[in-house]
Every structure is written in structure tokens, then in C-alpha cells.
Automatic annotation (TrEMBL):
<dbReference type="Pfam" id="PF00766">
    <property type="entry name" value="ETF_alpha"/>
</dbReference>
<dbReference type="InterPro" id="IPR014729">
    <property type="entry name" value="Rossmann-like_a/b/a_fold"/>
</dbReference>
<feature type="binding site">
    <location>
        <position position="243"/>
    </location>
    <ligand>
        <name>FAD</name>
    </ligand>
</feature>
<feature type="domain" description="Electron transfer flavoprotein alpha/beta-subunit N-terminal">
    <location>
        <begin position="41"/>
        <end position="223"/>
    </location>
</feature>
<keyword id="KW-0813">Transport</keyword>
<keyword id="KW-0496">Mitochondrion</keyword>
<dbReference type="InterPro" id="IPR029035">
    <property type="entry name" value="DHS-like_NAD/FAD-binding_dom"/>
</dbReference>
<dbReference type="Pfam" id="PF01012">
    <property type="entry name" value="ETF"/>
</dbReference>
<keyword id="KW-0249">Electron transport</keyword>
<feature type="binding site">
    <location>
        <position position="321"/>
    </location>
    <ligand>
        <name>FAD</name>
    </ligand>
</feature>
<dbReference type="GO" id="GO:0033539">
    <property type="term" value="P:fatty acid beta-oxidation using acyl-CoA dehydrogenase"/>
</dbReference>
<dbReference type="InterPro" id="IPR033947">
    <property type="entry name" value="ETF_alpha_N"/>
</dbReference>
<feature type="binding site">
    <location>
        <begin position="300"/>
        <end position="307"/>
    </location>
    <ligand>
        <name>FAD</name>
    </ligand>
</feature>
<protein>
    <recommendedName>
        <fullName>Probable electron transfer flavoprotein subunit alpha</fullName>
    </recommendedName>
</protein>
<dbReference type="GO" id="GO:0005759">
    <property type="term" value="C:mitochondrial matrix"/>
</dbReference>
<keyword id="KW-0285">Flavoprotein</keyword>
<dbReference type="InterPro" id="IPR018206">
    <property type="entry name" value="ETF_asu_C_CS"/>
</dbReference>
């Protein structure tokens, strides 16, 4: 149940999911100049090994659209390099940096209290992060500590208290109005293009460090899948395979050469991941990564609504499937009906020669 301070207006999406998202993205900011001077947004940025994650810069773009001052926040060990990178981002007025190795892993048990301390100190009206594993892990705790209701995965900003977000896997668009004094928001990266990483001249200031106790959680280990191919979340070209590939061996035999011939990242549908054809880090969809490359090639993917929610914003969608009635063809710009085990190797060969 929604509180009295928030109203939701839902509208059915247009015939195509992509049209609905474009309509939401065109919403204009109507905040008055006088109010903009009172607004201040904190964009929470991610870093790894002292290097800023450019994928988190969509939070800065969203903060800029509010019209007030924009501060960036980074925390971790040897943070100077990441803070320096953030200071050069166009549109950032100040960078709040906390140099403490305890925050390297972004554990919500200590990162959330750290954020809350700096939010209260800075008097921010909006706190914004990307809809990433980090953002989805930390910001709900921040919202709870601030006694605010989080607004998740927004795709457009109408004014300082009204936001647009997809619901029901993108089948409907909700306009959400929040009366909370501090708005805690996560943004869909594909809806807010990252700002230029050069041209800014923000000052860097040391943030408050409450040294929150992390006794309730301990970082044990991580296993990272390393690849020479582009990162799936930010790649300009993506090729994804589905259940139609029938096995992991066939997935690798068919998809990897195609990706190499296009210089593309490799993705997969949830059905392919659940069947063990691909690692779950490659999953594209509502419960995986949301991508919006210039070219998205769907191979052996039927087009379940959960998968479409993760790739419908792609500029050009090409589909290869033997089922002419597969839902994927309803959103595809280019479709090829045929046996993928014949058509994809043929396409790969021609691309390699070209």
C-alpha cells in the first residue's frame, strides 16, 4: 500500500514497449528557477581498485536534470584517483570523498550508514545511484534509515518530486510523486546517458566517516569472469543466445565466433543461463542486466517479456529464430527465420571475410 504522500498514475504502454519508454523519456523538467536553487542532489558513484566506474555516471545525468547543485560521492581505499576522475565529470560541483578501505566492497551494512551521515551533513534533497547490484543493495537501507520510500529504476524526471518508471516488466509506465523530504532514487542507466568525463572542475572535499561497525557482515571472496570482449553493460554491440542453442557446447561454438566477428559482448537469456549454457553474469533481462547497445542480435531467443525488458531500448534489434511466430519478431527491426545452426555460422563467415 502506498502512503498518502505518494500517488501513482499508471498508463498502458503503446503497442510497442520501445514507444512507451521513448514517451516517458521525453518528459520535461518543470521545476521553477527559485526552487532549483534550493535543490541539491548527491550522486553516488562506484569505484573499483581506485578507478571510477563510468557506468555509474548515469546518476550524475539524472541529478543534473533536477536543476539544482550536483555533488558526487565516492568511498574506498586510495580514493584520490577516483575522486580526481569524478571531479572532471561535466556538471559536478563538488566531490565528497571518504578514504577508508572498509568501504571498498560496498557492503551495505557499513556503506549505508556512511551515506546517511554524509546526506544529513550535506542537507541533500535527492540521493541518486544507478540500478546496479551496488545501488540495489545499498540504497534500500539508506531509504530505511532516512524513513523515506525508495523510488526505483526511474527512466525520466518530470520535476523534483515526480518521476517515471516502468512496471510489470515494462508493460505499463507509472508516474510516481513523492512527498518525502529526501528522495532516494535509483536510475536506469540506459535512460540517462553518462555525461562527458572531461571538462569539469569540481572541488574535492573529505566526507564524514562514522566508521560504522561491520560485525554483522564479512567479505569472504569473489570469483570474477574475465574476458577480452567488451563489457556487456556498456557494449555498443551485443549478441545474445537463448534456449534454442540446446547446450553449452553449442552456445560457445555458435555465439563466441559471432561475437568476435562483430567485436560484440556476449549475452544470454534467462532460459539459457538456467540451463547452464552461459554464466549468470551474462544474463540480459528483467532479473539480469539492462542493455541498450547500437546493435542487439538475439539468437534462438523466443522473446519472453522478461527478456524484452532488458534489451528493448537497443537502437537496432536483429533476431534469428526458426519460429516465425516468436514474440521476438514483434520488436525486432530485422528478422531472419531459419535454423540458427545453419544461418549463424554462415553469417559469421561472411562477417569475418568482410
Amino acid at each position: 500500500m502506498l502512503s498518502a504522500g505518494r500517488r501513482v498514475f499508471s498508463a498502458l504502454a503503446r503497442p510497442t514497449l520501445r514507444d512507451a519508454t521513448l514517451t516517458a523519456a521525453r518528459a520535461s523538467t518543470t521545476t521553477t528557477p527559485a526552487l532549483r536553487r534550493l535543490l541539491s542532489a548527491l550522486a553516488v558513484l562506484e569505484q573499483r581498485d581506485g578507478q571510477l566506474s563510468t557506468g555509474s555516471l548515469s546518476a550524475v545525468t539524472a541529478a543534473q536534470r533536477l536543476g539544482g547543485t550536483v555533488h558526487a560521492f565516492v568511498a574506498g581505499s586510495n580514493i584520490q584517483a577516483a575522486a580526481g576522475q569524478a571531479a572532471k565529470v561535466a556538471g559536478v560541483d563538488k566531490v565528497i570523498a571518504v578514504d577508508n578501505g572498509a568501504y571498498d566492497r560496498g557492503l551495505p551494512e557499513n556503506f549505508a550508514p556512511l551515506l546517511v551521515e554524509n546526506i544529513k551533513k550535506g542537507g541533500y534533497t535527492h540521493v541518486i545511484a544507478g540500478t546496479t547490484a551496488f545501488g540495489k543493495n545499498v540504497l534500500p537501507r539508506v531509504a530505511a534509515l532516512l524513513d523515506s520510500q525508495q523510488i526505483s529504476d526511474i527512466t525520466a524526471i518530470q520535476d523534483d518530486k515526480t518521476f517515471v518508471r516502468p512496471i510489470y516488466a515494462g508493460n505499463a509506465i507509472a508516474t510516481v510523486e513523492s512527498a518525502d523530504p529526501i528522495k532516494v532514487i535509483t536510475v536506469r542507466g540506459t535512460a540517462f546517458a553518462a555525461p562527458p568525463t572531461e571538462g569539469g572542475s569540481a572541488t574535492i572535499e573529505a566526507g564524514a566517516d562514522p566508521n560504522a561497525d561491520t560485525a554483522t557482515a564479512e567479505w569472504v571472496s569473489e570469483n570474477l569472469a574475465k574476458s577480452d570482449r567488451p563489457d556487456l553493460a556498456t557494449a555498443g554491440r551485443v549478441v545474445s543466445g537463448g534456449r534454442g542453442l540446446k547446450s553449452k557446447e553449442e552456445f560457445d561454438r555458435i555465439m563466441l565466433p559471432l561475437a568476435d566477428s562483430l567485436g560484440a559482448a556476449v549475452g544470454a537469456s534467462r532460459a539459457a543461463v538456467d540451463s547452464g549454457y552461459a554464466d549468470n553474469s551474462l544474463q540480459v533481462g528483467q532479473t539480469g542486466k539492462v542493455v541498450a547497445p547500437q546493435l542487439y542480435v538475439a539468437v534462438g531467443i523466443s522473446g519472453a517479456i522478461q527478456h524484452l525488458a532488458g534489451m528493448k531500448d537497443s537502437k537496432v534489434i536483429a533476431a534469428i529464430n526458426k519460429d516465425a511466430d516468436a514474440p521476438i519478431f514483434q520488436v525486432a527491426d530485422v528478422g531472419l527465420v531459419g535454423d540458427l545452426f545453419e544461418k549463424v555460422p554462415e553469417l559469421t563467415e561472411k562477417l569475418s571475410k568482410a
